[in-house]
Amino acid sequence: MKRIKVMTIFGTRPEAIKMAPLVKELEKREEFESIVCVTAQHREMLDQVLDLFNINPHYDLNIMKERQSLTGITTRVLEGLENIFKEAQPDIVLVHGDTTTTFAGSLAAFYNQIKIGHVEAGLRSFNKYFPFPEEMNRKLTGALSDLHFAPTKTAKENLLREGVNEEFIFVTGNTVIDAMETTVERKYVFETEELNSIDFKNKKVIMVTAHRRENWGQPLENICEALKKIALEFKDVEIIYLVHLNPAVKEVAYRVLADVERVHLLPPLDTKETHNLMDRSYMVVTDSGGLQEEAPHLGKPVLVLRDVTERPEAVKAGTAKIVGTETDNVYENIKRLLIDKDEYKKMANAINPYGDGRASERIADAILYYFGIYKKRPEDYKSF
């Protein structure tokens, strides 16, 4: 039997975390020849995930440049994939989510008339500039794709409204939940020594990330001021802010928060450190899409530092709340979860709508069904 050549393409840490369990699932199955191509849109943070999951890429475009532009990323991916596709000749390319690597990778596959599978398809904020450029990256990738692996029923409904044929949409759950089945350890000892000195049992630890492009400038200033107010008011709180390496983020975070007691400014952690920090935290305050999915799996309330989210399932389920970026609103919502036990319990105990740890299996089954190896269509993940 001729094996199906499946090339996974990813370039950032969030993509890698979510594609890693799928790569491992493809490697296990004799029906597939798994080919991994990374763009290294993010270099150091990507490599951390590759090491964690023991993934050795067959191709590495290594495109990252200092202060890189969206145009530069797009063109380097397009040009780099041209020769790789000619050499590898994949039957299908899998891309993930909403990064510029995702869009450029799907466009390159389309130019070479290669089938495209979109993992985590169908998420929408319905505003093309929020998040920017992710919303349009995801929509354009969807327009180019042949197979759509929607994580939830809501994502599938978005695709159906856009005219995607239901036959090619598979509801799979989110692969990040698959990844977390292997990364979270109850007796984990942090490699980052500063984290081992924090009293997670007796302190309310707030894990923070804030780095999205639309939050650069005044919104990030507002967020940092809110965190500063919380740290000064609540002596039983420790704030751990994982500060993105981008200078537009670092400059603001360090200027506002560097000298504030009980605020820990740390560089981005590797995946295992991040997941275990999340597991021991009291709540998560973030503008990250991935953390909106990951934290509820661990029973952690999420305050979303955005005005819209393409992940409404978490809000509907009650695990997440959109709080925007105005200082007073961010402050008041954090404060409420710190002092209102009932509100905290309600969010912490809400059901996670994003998966059961078997998304990668469903995606692999769907590909085999699409290529006629499996005769029975795989059942959809039952989300709400």
Automatic annotation (TrEMBL):
<comment type="similarity">
    <text>Belongs to the UDP-N-acetylglucosamine 2-epimerase family.</text>
</comment>
<keyword id="KW-0413">Isomerase</keyword>
<dbReference type="InterPro" id="IPR029767">
    <property type="entry name" value="WecB-like"/>
</dbReference>
<dbReference type="GO" id="GO:0008761">
    <property type="term" value="F:UDP-N-acetylglucosamine 2-epimerase activity"/>
</dbReference>
<feature type="domain" description="UDP-N-acetylglucosamine 2-epimerase">
    <location>
        <begin position="24"/>
        <end position="367"/>
    </location>
</feature>
<protein>
    <recommendedName>
        <fullName>UDP-N-acetylglucosamine 2-epimerase (non-hydrolyzing)</fullName>
        <ecNumber>5.1.3.14</ecNumber>
    </recommendedName>
</protein>
<dbReference type="Pfam" id="PF02350">
    <property type="entry name" value="Epimerase_2"/>
</dbReference>
<dbReference type="InterPro" id="IPR003331">
    <property type="entry name" value="UDP_GlcNAc_Epimerase_2_dom"/>
</dbReference>
